Batch of 4 targets.
Target 1
Amino acid sequence: MEKEYNSEEEFLNDYDSSQFEKLSMTVDILVLSVSNEETSNYRKTDKKKMSILLVKRNQYPFKDKWCLPGGFIGIDENLDDAPMRVLKRETNVDNIYLEQLYTFGDTKRDPRMRIVSSAYMALIDKNKLDTSLNTNASWFDVVSIEEKNNLVNIILNNGKETISFTIRKELKEKTTDRYKFVEVENDKIAFDHTIVILSGLERLRNKVEYTDVVFNMMPDLFTLGELQQVYEVILNKKLLDPAFRRIIADKVVKTNKLKTGGGHRPSYLFEYKHK
């Protein structure tokens, strides 16, 4: 028979938390950048590229492997306060907007103990950052994302090292088109961060369809060609001009200013239409 209490205070004073197993909570941060890939040919327009911010681990487990910036949440720390603190400590990047991505809780995701992670993500232009990265942090360009027969292969490169991993997508619910991600090949990324990365990339693709998230990394003034490149990099596909114009019709405003130089015809500049 359960003991009866006369007040919540009496219950809490008698409460024994030791009857429950303990788990730890961390945050992992996926920072994505879409920025210019400069060319030495002045007649060619700078192309856009996507990059992911990774950190090389200097201790076990997974010593010398790459991972997303992450760390444990303090016992007296609010959940939404942790990712910015951890990101600053791990990479020296701060003052960027972060939003919660997903909670990852596979029982074998960390060999040390049972750890649940709340992942956060951001989309920025890394060229706008006014701080230098910590020595163990590096931007990896997304060289390719190829999907065939529900196998997704992603190749990253930071100019010194190439990372390749493959994830299998297993359909969980037909009605909602939800997938479970299973790591197939990976030898350079720690924990389950390959799955976090793919989850973030797919979330971002969905968000560009119904939000204005791309304007987080656009300059105040831009050409439609520059904006279209950003959409194409995120969506990983070429967009026909009419389809792209329909997507951004209510998002931008044409100015009376022109972009000139670089061996190209002048192009009108646009700005984000704040709602």
Note: DSSP finds five helices and twelve strands in the chain.
Target 2
Amino acid sequence: MAQPRGAHLTIAGREVAVRVRKTARARRMTLRIDGAIDGIDLTLPRWVSVAEGLRFAESKRDWLTDRLAALPARVRFEDGALVPLAGREYRVRHREAELPLVWLEREEIRAGGAERGLPERIGAWIKDLAKRELARRAAEKAVRIGLPAPAVRLRDTRSLWGSCSPKGRLTFTWRLVFAPEAVMDYVVAHEVAHLKHMNHGKRFWALVDQLTADAAGARAWLRREGARLHRYG
């Protein structure tokens, strides 16, 4: 796949970034809203020029305007923010006089220290929480199917919730920690099942259903609400 190129369109009076990709697999021009950057992904077949692709995007201006306006509000990691963790909402409470640590206390994410760098400290704490929870679930599910605990790493991917390498390393987006517990559990089950079946055949899906309670419901939630996970931080 060709590396993405950058361009811009003016939508509702502001410049919006457009990531242009050309790929041999594409058979038609497609547009997708990238909620992580308030931008647009434009995918083109190799035989379509970038100029033609941008004219296509321009022709969809009304649709793009509506979709960008429909994005959930961004939630910064700052005092007073409501942040979901595994389906429960926690209020961020910052007290400068307390130690520069982050911890959970009842229904709050408590944070001390200077206001400067607060979002970064809370973000690092949430990523660590996500790593521990995803690794724990992956280890438990791997044991259930007779495999050792897999190596787990985190990334901030925009289009994939998780992946499994040919060597058996699992990668997840840390943003899964903002999803309901059942959704996180499904994504882990999906990738652990790939340790047995590197495909999406019947045996793969049967194993997914053994490893998690509501795969269909979780997939539906991700299609409906997944963009929201990119609006935190």
Note: Residues 118-144 form the longest helix (27 residues).
Target 3
Amino acid sequence: MRRLATATVLALGFATVPLLSQLPDVQRHLDAAREAAGNDHVLLFDRICAEAERIAAPRPPRTARRGPRPTPPRESWYAEPVQVFDNLYYVGMTDYSAWAVTTSDGIILIDAIFDYSVEDEVIDGLTTMGFDPADIKYVVVSHAHLDHAGGAKLLQERYGSQVVMGAADWDLLDERNPAWKPKRDIVATDGQRLSLGDTTVTLYLTPGHTEGTISTLVPVRDGGRSHLAAAWGGTAFNFGPDRERLQMYTDSAERFRDIVEEAGADVLIANHTNFDGSKTKIPALATRQPGGPHPYVVGTDTVARYVTVAHECAQAALAGL
């Protein structure tokens, strides 16, 4: 059955990109991305290598959204909080992630999801797991889009949590001035070590998805064993045929892959549950036997291959231009 499942994934799981693949340089990068994806990162490959084709193909401009987004029904997005490591908790939604890093002196939150969901997921989630949400000292926002930054203002105003974003993303929010914008707080710097109590996370500026995107390394523990989690801060190509942005993206991905390999990161976490396999890994935690393999500990090669997929798909899009 395992062989059948693998064959099905390989036959059906990968997106096809017929227009771009007619170009030899594009095909070379698509092949490299497909090889890097293996069976571990199929959904990532499908999403962003398909976007590479759309970037190169002409399309009409998008109509600007008018008015506030409607709030979806709670049953369509709510997820229970889960302890993933000794010091790392999942407090996100079914599709959008938020990660709480617990330390000896408070909590570092990575991403604040939507303004409508932060109360139920982050605040109530931490309370359910036995923590005081008032102990959220830092909110690291991977990038300044509503699905990751929307809840930061509430946490800032209610608890005094300090919000950390890249300078370009603070500028982006100032330009757009959404109702959920937090006040300008900490401006992240490349390689910044953010320490709280017994824990230090390291922030890297990896522009591309937005110009202020932050990727993060987080030390985690599992029953006395130490691991290092890597979070790639922005994944999709949410821009049109912009050569400068694509070059920025691919350079960032190449650099962060090198950082992952040098640091020996062996755990992958993402800000969307499809990309890091959380939709299967979180249920697997519930049936894990004491001392058994941890579903999130995938090894440095697998983490590096994840970022390689992002890099090669961006290279394919560049070649297609």
Note: The mean pLDDT is 91.
Target 4
Amino acid sequence: MAVLNIEIKARCNNPEAIRKILTQRKALFKGTDNQKDTYFKVKNGRLKMREGNIEYSLVYYDREDISGPKRSDVIYYHPRKEDLIKQQLQKAIGTLIVVKKKREIYYIDNIKFHIDEVDELGSFVEIEAIDKTGKIGAKQLYEQCKKYISLFQISKEDMIINSYSDMLITKNLQIVEGTVLQAIDISNQIPEFEKPYEKIEYDKRLKDKIYLILIAYWKGKPAGFKVGYQVEDHFYSWLGGVVPEFRKKRIAKGLAQFQQKWAMEKGFKTIKMKTRNMYRIMLQFALSDGFYIAGLEKRDNPKENRIFLDKEL
């Protein structure tokens, strides 16, 4: 079943106040559900198995990572509890992370409300304006969502951009500024780099430039890196990668977000990058991150074609 949601998630310092408002509005209370969400490693969107007494479903969704009301295109599948679909997915594509929470579930017409207590993260409130039939439309869903944001007095500072899974991953992921030698050491662990650049190349490219070297650690272990530097009036995202054992943990995304935020703070308006036609995963990642194809440099072997990408910051 495909569904359109407009939704928000926010930190909640006073769950009792939310309960009181929902009670005054005669919201239908469906109960409290102890839920376990198992997120799987997928290239696009998010896929999770939700196991609870009230809600039990396999959910795929593709949602904007922005603050405030955001569109989420959702596909639900409701297996039987005795089905082995979770085990099949764990074997086939692997588990990304597991989120455990206690969730209170309320409804007012087509709007669903959650008051959540999430292990390791704290208290949250969610508002989901839902269109199951295609007759309500995104515009009205946005207005419904905004109405309850105001009613619950949710501030912009309390709005959450990412999912609970991303927040838990962030607890395990540390990104810091590093050195050339650290970047080289990690690049030597990445099989796609047949001949990793040596220090002399880094020194040549970074000399007298504004540059940034990022090192990602997953639970304290070096897991990835990203290097960029100034070229004329823009920032060039030159080189980066994630060690195979740490992939599909959104580390590349975390590195990209850190780099882009840093570049914006330094006053850059555009970030550019280059990849090869053979690196499809890198190209897909760049396009999903908001880059657009700005140029193409052909080579004798089409797989070696250079693809130039730009993103406005």
Note: The chain has two domains: 2-168, 178-312.
